[in-house]
Predict the 3D structure of the following.
Amino acid sequence: MDGELNGCIDTSHVKNEAFHNTPIVIEETLSSSGITLIALWDILADARYRVSWPEDRRLPLSKDTVIAVYTRQGHGEIHLHDGSVIEPHGHSVVFLKPTTIAHYRCPGMLWDLVWIEMVPNGALTFPFRSIISLSNEDRLINECAEAIELLSREPERWKSLGVAMVTKLIYQWLAVAGDPLPASANLKRVERVLEALHQSMNRCWTVTEMAAIAQCSEQQLRKLFHTYTGQSPKRYVINAKLDIARVLLNHKRLNVAEVAEKLGFHDSFHFSKAFKQRFGQAPSAHARRPPQSGIQ
């Protein structure tokens, strides 16, 4: 879809070097009861991806603009002007003020994200810079995909429904951020482990290694993972790897053996067996699909 993003006509100035990069730019910004959506980008990036946040060429960003970065899979780095670095990981969201952003990049194998630019219409309180870990991954990913599809449709009423769905997601994320979490120190233990996992998905992680990062016993780590992710540490790692594998098979020219090796599986047989158990299809069914087109 053609259009401007904060005054930039050439979209390559804004989001570049990604093997799937779909701009959904609202030519006339649409509003719901909660937000006015400026733009939304559906991005699947690899290690080539690095974006310097562009200065506006025509219209300055409103001081009320908010950026939401929803990471579905993988790991990213967002560098701020004050020298700090935000490192979102799948499955999480972070809210930022656009004037604080210097640049951002994919430091590893993959960063699968949705970049949302919006202006809140009501009295919403955003926990800026805090990475919010999300559960119910499949449901939220599906809802986000449906919103993106609606924003791409004509006539305008479908776009309005898409903005309403984005607004619902924003409220869900804020509700998660606002929920009082007992044992927040334990949550931080789990988040440290998740960050390490998503930074090194090619490793064959053991529970012992993860417990060392969390600075707790293996038994305690298993309890914490069940509390905050609903999965055991081992199951979380396997599912995260398989989710990334499906993305790589769908979007990159990699065969099953290459993906299995890249993600640290012992061999293609065990990878294929685990993949079919999770998704009901052999990985070869995904590998045969032609890569999706996108901005390169």
Q: What stands out?
A: DSSP finds nine helices and ten strands in the chain. Residues 50 and 252 are 19 Å apart (CA to CA). The first strand starts at residue 18 and ends at 31. The chain has two domains: 11-178, 184-287.
